[in-house]
Specification:
By secondary structure, this protein is of the alpha+beta class. The protein is built from 5 helices and 11 strands; from the N terminus they run ααβαβββββαβββββα. Strands 7-11-8-9 form a 4-stranded mixed β-sheet, covered by helices on one side. A 3-stranded mixed β-sheet has the order 2-5-3, with helices on one face.
Length: 206
């Protein structure tokens, strides 16, 4: 039988069909083997551990055949309970394999304290970034008559005056008293004379 007749014969097409069937069957068995060895389809959804204590985290993850690693604590956040989870990786809802480790960060026990920076005679635009860099917040802004427009004249905390170097808790709000730039030079001189009357020259007695 010639090659041309063989390629168009029924026997050839039967063999091609059987070969394709065998390849498909082997592919099917290989995919099932791969799925079994990689545990595909048995992924675990990472739970939300936010605001849980370390003990609660361990108990919850044990039930899911997951484990955790405590990285460190973060600065105190008032909207989270003390010693509760603030951050986690992987995030809630992500799919992971059995035995995967979840990395967590815990809220500290309270605010740490910082020293109040020297903002006196600095501008408002300079003062605010300095406060934020130290973990402090801008509080109430009050203006009083003074030649220095937007210049910091006083710093206050909870209604009392504070000075540079005083310690306050992180995230505290520092109120600033600023100059309004409306006081004239004459008013400044007058206020100085009134505040220091002893500087006036006394007439000579004859």
């Amino acid at each position: 039988m010639s090659l041309r007749k063989y390629l168009t014969s029924r026997a050839f097409f039967t063999q091609v069909f059987l070969a394709a069937l065998i390849i498909a069957l082997l592919g099917y068995l290989f995919m099932h083997w791969l799925t079994f060895t990689t545990d595909h389809g048995n992924e675990i959804t990472v739970p939300d551990l936010s605001k849980l204590t370390e003990e609660q985290v361990e108990e919850k993850l044990d039930e899911l055949d997951l484990s955790y690693v405590l990285l460190d604590s973060v600065d105190y956040r008032s909207n989270y309970p003390k010693y509760s989870v603030v951050q986690q990786d992987p995030l809630p809802g992500e799919k992971v394999k059995e035995g995967r480790k979840v990395y967590i960060k815990i809220n500290s026990s309270g605010f740490s304290s910082v020293r109040v920076p020297d903002l006196i005679e600095k501008t408002y635009r300079e003062a605010v970034p300095t406060l934020k860099a130290l973990g402090l917040e801008e509080g109430t802004i009050t203006y009083i008559p003074n030649l220095g427009k937007d210049m910091v004249l006083e710093m206050r905390y909870k209604g009392r005056n504070i000075k540079p170097g005083d310690r306050v808790l992180k995230s505290s709000k520092i109120d600033l008293v600023l100059g309004d730039g409306k006081a004239s030079y004459e008013e400044e001189v007058t206020d100085t004379i009134i505040a220091n009357p002893a500087t006036e020259e006394m007439p000579n007695e004859q």
